[in-house]
């Protein structure tokens, strides 16, 4: 029952999700749905990619009016057992960054999802909007 409720809460708009969670006695750890406790105290840990869009439930939203810079940053990309470091311009869009990651990881243009600082990297948003710094880790999930 609680898993189904958490799934519905992830798919609902924020006010509706908060009502659902409160009414069913679910306690959010640190104000986020990623780690929460059911009414009987059982622990539920939701992976980042389950919550979509990831900025729901208190994550800091990306300011659309932030200045995009073209600084070079080095990011560590982790996929399963493989880790690579990539130097990219911070004004590169998520879609272009995914192409580079696919090429360097040898994924042959497979669909991937990238996560960093608790958020999924959007195809249309420049990396600078996420305020990434050198050596930040980017988690790469291959989609089936």
Description:
With about 140 residues, this protein is of the alpha+beta class. About 20% of the residues lie in helices and about 30% in strands. It has helices spanning about 1-10, 15-25, 95-105, and strands at about 25-30, 30-35, 45, 70-80, 80-90, 110-115, 120, 135-140. A five-stranded mixed sheet has the order 5-4-8-6-7, with helices on one face. The protein has a three-stranded antiparallel sheet with strand order 1-2-3, with helices on one face. Helix 1 (about 1-10) runs antiparallel to helix 2. Residues about 55-70 have low confidence and may be disordered.
Number of strands: 8
Principal-axis shape:
elongated
Tally the helices: 3
Over the alpha carbons, how many angstroms does the gyration radius reach?
Answer: 17 Å
Q: Sheet with the most strands?
A: 5 strands, mixed
The average pLDDT score comes to 82
Strand pairing plus helix content: what structural class? alpha+beta
Helix content: 10-25%
Q: Which spans have pLDDT < 50 for at least 5 consecutive residues?
A: 54-68
Q: What is the first-to-last residue Cα distance?
A: 27 Å
Helix-strand pattern, N to C?
Answer: HHEEEEEHEEE
Q: Major sheet: order of its strands? A: 5-4-8-6-7
Notable traits:
five-stranded mixed sheet; alpha+beta; single chain; three-stranded antiparallel sheet; 8 strands; 144 residues; 3 helices; elongated
């Amino acid at each position: 029952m609680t898993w189904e409720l958490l799934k519905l809460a992830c798919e609902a708009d924020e006010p509706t999700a908060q009502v659902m969670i409160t009414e069913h006695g679910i306690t959010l750890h640190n104000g986020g749905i990623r780690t929460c406790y059911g009414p009987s105290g059982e622990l539920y840990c939701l992976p980042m990619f389950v919550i979509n869009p990831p900025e729901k439930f208190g994550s800091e939203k990306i300011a659309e009016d932030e200045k995009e810079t073209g600084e070079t940053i080095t990011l560590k990309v982790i996929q399963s057992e493989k880790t690579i470091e990539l130097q990219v311009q911070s004004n590169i869009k998520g879609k272009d960054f995914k192409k580079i990651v696919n090429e360097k990881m040898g994924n042959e243009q497979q669909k991937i999802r990238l996560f960093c600082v608790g958020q999924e990297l959007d195809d249309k948003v420049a990396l600078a909007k996420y305020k990434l710094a050198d050596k930040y880790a980017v988690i790469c999930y291959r989609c089936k």
